[in-house]
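ESCALATION

Customer reports they have been waiting on this structure for their group meeting. Please prioritize. Original submission:
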Amino acid sequence: MRQIYSNYNEEDFQVWKSLFERQMLNLPYAASTEFLEGLNHTQFVADRIPDFSETNEVLQQLTGWRLAVVPGIVPDYTFFELMSNKRFPATTWLRKMEELDYLEEPDMFHDVFAHVPLLTNQHFVDFLEELSKIGLEYSGNDYAIELLSRVYWFTVEFGLILEREGLRIYGAGILSSAGETKYCLSDEPRHHEFDVQQIIDTPYRKDVFQTDYFIIESYDQLYHSIPEVKRLLKQALEKRPEESVSA
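Update from on-call: job pushed to the front of the queue and completed.
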């Protein structure tokens, strides 16, 4: 599959512009420094939907990654296989104007605006690559993938980072949501120090704002958590031997 840029219509450009401008009102004071620097690298702007060929040139030069066009949510094996080969799965379609505030399935604004800027950070993409290799190892094991998805969910999608300026956002699920951008930094949800065991033990829901957020100190810390992820996942599977064999 590939991005066919000529297929975008006036509504698509208006949706991108509306979402971009709405988020950029909040993100300079809410998003992590690395995300904002990545946004500068990619040169995303409100008036132009990103061209994947141009974005790939930037990513290839900085971290060796590329975007891989997918129709939507893909099977676990495909998802992990792509990222273990430094290819981030991204859709090319955009939500409708009436869906600006909520969308069940991630669209291009989520996949590209919210995810791509951090693909310029080497420690972050190294974490993604190694996490995906673990996913490939346990592909077909529903229990293992469920636990691993919690690590992905509370980091890549809904992670927070403590920077010199204070608590900031790096999770793409937050960065593509105007409402959750404000909510996650408030006193309403619970904030926890990054703890792999606690993350593995914490279920999540996709249809509401999160009640728990985990805070890393650096992307280097995230990458160096991989051995602990492997160890704790193995321990969890040993407690459920009937689930421990990959299909």
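Sent to customer with the following note: The CA atoms of residues 113 and 176 lie 7 Å apart.
Escalation resolved.
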